[in-house]
Amino acid sequence: MGLTSDVNRRDVIKRAGALGLVAVPGMTALSGCASGGGDDNKDKVDKGEKTKDNPLGVNEKAGLEVVIFNGGFGDQYALDAEKVYSDSYGKVTHSKTQKIRTKMQPRMVKGNPPDVINNSGAENMDIASLIDDKQVSDLETLLDSPSLFDPSKKVRDLMMPGTVEKGTFGDDKMYQLNYAYTVYGTWFSQKALDGLEVEYPKTWDEMLAVCAKAKKSGMAGWTYAGKHPYYFAFTIYPFIGKIGGQDVLKAIDNLEPNAWKQDAVKKAFEAYYELRAKDYILKGTPGIDHIQSQTQWTKGNALFIPNGSWVENEAKSTTPKDFGMTVMPPTGLDKSDAMPFETLWAEASEPFFVPAKAKNVEGGMEFLRVMMGKEATQNFTKQVSSLTCVKGAADGLQLSPGLASAKKALDAAGDNIVSPRLPDWYLTLHKEKVGGAIAAMMAGDIKPDEAMKRAQQAADEVAKDDSVKKYKR
Amino acid sequence: MANDVRAVDTEPTGPAPRKDARRASFGDYLLFAATLVLPPRFTPERVRYDRRYRTLDKYRFICWFLLAPVVLYAVLVISPFFQAFYYSLTDWSGFSSEFSFVGLDNYERMLDDSDFWASVKNSLLLLIVAPLATLGLGLFFAFMLQAGGRHRKSEAISGVRGAKFYKVVYFFPQVLSVAIIGVVWGAMYDPITGPINEVLRTAGLESWTQNWLANPDIAMLCVLFVLCWMFIGFYVVLFSAAMGSVPKDIYEAALLDGASRPTTFFRVTLPLIWDTVHTGWIYMGIQALDAFAIVHIMTINAGGPGNSTLVTPVYLYKKAFDSGQAGYATAVGVVLLIITMIFAAVMMLFNRRERIEY
Q1: What is the least distance, in Å, from the CA of A325 to any CA of chain B?
Q2: Which chain B residues contact residue A121 at CB under 8 A?
Q3: Could you say which of A16, A285, A435 has the minimum Cβ distance to residue B301?
């Protein structure tokens, strides 16, 4: 430690500091700001000629770059669609990633994004902010072009209910195409229900009776992804809609004052709280994640689980062969419900968009048009067992049990579909605040009244917050 | 360093001035400046025999050696700091290169942001409790490894049996990546399949089983425990090394005077290694202020249930990337920087005391 030369350590540090201070002003000239970058359109490719086979006017010589989220759906379906595209329009550059945000955000900021982004996964980019920043191209020309699924119709006319609405943010243009179609509801094993010799409960009294019977046979009534409590929304939101009608959910989406204190919300929360009060929930559920909850459910430790139609694929490895995975619309409250039992929450999911600053915007849209053709949609459904946003695309296909039941429930629902917008408009409010309040209630930490109060308080805070863009429906 | 008594400046006494001291002319300064950038062998005679040459030589040496690292440091570390200050005054979304200047709006907003205050409260709690617990236990274990064993012949002090082995074991968590620690402890705390509840059930303590991370009352304790667990090994090794360098004869003298082990620890060991403890304290404090990875990976909804484990870096991350409010998040980051600096300054003040030489 004995530094006694004439250049001692303290001096060195002092002088280094001084030098650093001198160097700083010099640096400002050099520093490339994190937000710097071009915003001009000099890189756009020329448009091609519009013909009957090429209604969007794609430049056949320009390449296309597609980035796919490599999640539960993989990327094979996209590779297949790219092959179809490249047969008519030339080379496609394909890449896949699990970290859309990390990989794509810098390119969006710099102004050289790819032509199609599959903006999905836990690490996706906030689409509302992107649209706000005019970074996303609207898809109206795509919607008005002839469909490849049924050439006599426009793409727009073959969209499943809610798909166009889900892609709009603020104005009436669609910016985001949600390719897959997800059915949410109460999932169960038909075999387990048969074992208890009961039918799927249609009213809440029946639900409690079924749970009581299950409990007697040593099975919990419900389990859920306690670590991700917003899973509960998949049955609670449509339940609220069922009790009070579409307007109740509309008021919630529009952040109206006292929307969470409406009678329908109170009834729904109290009904679900009874599951906790009567101890029908699998012990330990509040602390487990979605995989764990699904595993407990496929093992037969719990009867019902709120989930979406991806669960069949996700829980494949733990599902017994004779499980009979089935989805039904959320159980209603009683005869006074405003909407029929068949009402359920279904929506388009798995978002794709074409960046406004992409080099080949027309090519990006054409690629999405190819994806919505007969070949691509059926390929997708077969490969990843999920429905698509194209009407009638899965008709006549051989479907797995869970998916078949989802399609059946969807067909039975007809127009009685609710699609709450809270998750895409105010993600934090939905996921953390309301999800957190429901989680605390289902864990038994608070009573329904308090949960409603917390949800309302959080909604009011968002309504007051100028930094959050507001939407109305 | 400020009290390093040996680090006394010994100003070099240059060769005796050949000529009478005269006022330096403009030409002299120019010559000196030129010397600074010239290789030593080209030093002009006039300068070489000047009495101020030694000082110049020293500076020339330092400047040239530090140039590259300082430039790198300035570009990669210091300039982003200044950029961050600037971005914290804008409404940048993080998604485009366009934003507008909003002055102190972001900071004003922070005042009414209940989530932000909840996160600050949790971070400060960690800042105080985590170093206390970790350093306390680290010191205890290190002392046991160093001086906790029975007395042996011809040795004043000795560690417990297998001290070397324990040292390695304590260090294990340090080898694991933080992400792995988060995932593994998340699984440990799992209420249904997690080993902790399993052990409790097997031991017949069914009533002690908990929904660990799902219980807002104990979730923070669970995080704190993991933080201590992952850092303790590092401090055991650090303190063991510091204790090892304390001369044995001091212990012998203390023993001859009839000092018990606690007395030895508080009167001899602790004062002698205080510098190391102090450094460790600052380091652990900064680790505790961060705690990002563990909270983000392990806890419910990253910071839940409710806001019970939300720490400021996690809140910053959520604002920046989940809500697309990079400007506001940067402002949160600036506040976090200020808190860290205040902490470091307070710790520096604590250490203004005489240093013991041995």
Answers
A1: 23
A2: none
A3: A435
**What is the per-residue pLDDT across A354-399, written as a single tens digit (0 to 9) for each?**
999 999 999 999 999 999 998 899 999 988 888 999 988 888 888 8
- The ipTM is 0.72
What are the backbone angles phi and psi of residue B58, rounded to the nearest 5°?
-60, -50
Subunit contact B74:A4, Cβ cutoff 8 A: no
Q: Indicate if A114 and A200 belong to the same structural domain.
A: no
Which chain B residues are Cβ-neighbours of A117 within 8 angstroms?
A: none
Find which of A1, A3, A6 to mutate to test the B interface (most B CBs within 10 Å of its CB): A6
How far does B72 lie from chain A, in Å, by closest CA? 10
Q: How far does the CA of residue B259 sit from the closest CA of chain A (Å)? A: 30
Domain count, chain A: 2
Contact call for residues A105 and B324 (beta carbons, < 8 A): no
Would A118 be classed as within a structural domain? Answer: yes
Distance from CA of A41 to the nearest CA of B (A): 14
Query: Which residue range is the domain that position A453 belongs to?
Result: 183-346+419-464
More confident residue, B11 or A198: A198
The class (CATH top level) of B109-350 is mainly alpha
How does pLDDT run across A133-186, given as a tens digit for each residue? 889 999 999 999 998 888 888 898 888 888 888 888 878 889 999 999 999 999
Rounded distance between C-alpha atoms, residue B145 and residue B165, angstroms: 10
Taking contacts as CB-CB distances below 8 angstroms, the residues of chain A near B215 are 286-287, 443
Q: Which of A361, A394, A427 is the last residue of a domain?
A: A394
Residue A74 in tokens: 């993989």
Q: Does one domain contain both A102 and A190? A: no
Q: How far is CA A218 from CA A188, A198, A211, A421, in A?
A: 16, 16, 10, 38
Same domain, A324 and A240: yes
Query: Among B252, A85, A468, which residue's Cα sits nearest to residue A460?
Result: A468
Poorest-pLDDT segment among A233-237, B6-10, B20-24: B6-10
| Residue among A104, A101, A138, A143 nearest A123 (CA) | A101
> What does the longest C-alpha to C-alpha distance in chain A come to?
92
